[in-house]
Amino acid sequence: MRTAAQLIVDTVEVLSGCGVFTRVLLKDGSTEVMTGKEPLAAVAYAGFETLSDGGVQVTEHRLKIYVRLLSVGSADTSPLHTAVEAITNTPAVSVSSSIHTTDTRTMTFVIEAGYRC
User: What mean pLDDT do residues 55-59 have?
Assistant: First the structure.
């Protein structure tokens, strides 16, 4: 049984191994600013939920992966697609992504992943 801390460390390692990010950070809630050269990723713990799966109680941990990309000129979203593919190849039971913010220079996407333990 993996803990939330292990899931976070494993996710940082998976994203670091993609070879597309300049840095992969641990993000503490929404207070930490993502600083660094794009493309950049940060992993945050988003909580857990206890579910019943066929009469068995399981805990589903949720992670949010923030991916910040440069949006000046022709925006290259391939790092986002690489990150989604990498997370999909982990034991995640659910993976979704959406755009979080955009400004004149960067776009930030959020990938949400759920892991049952």
Answer: 89
- The three-point CA angle 50-51-52 to 5° equals 135
Strand order in the sheet with 40-53: 23-26, 40-53, 56-70, 106-116, 94-102
**How does strand 40-53 pair with strand 23-26?**
parallel
pTM reported for the whole predicted model: 0.87
For 73-100, what is each residue's pLDDT tens digit?
A: 667 889 999 999 999 999 999 999 998 8
Q: Which residues contact 15 (CB under 8 A, 6 or more apart)?
A: 21, 24, 41, 43, 65, 83, 86, 87
Tokens of 29: 């809630």
- Residue recorded with tokens 């950049």: 40
4-116 topology per CATH: STM4215-like (3.30.2000)
Would you say how long the chain is, in residues? 117
CA distance 45 to 11: 11
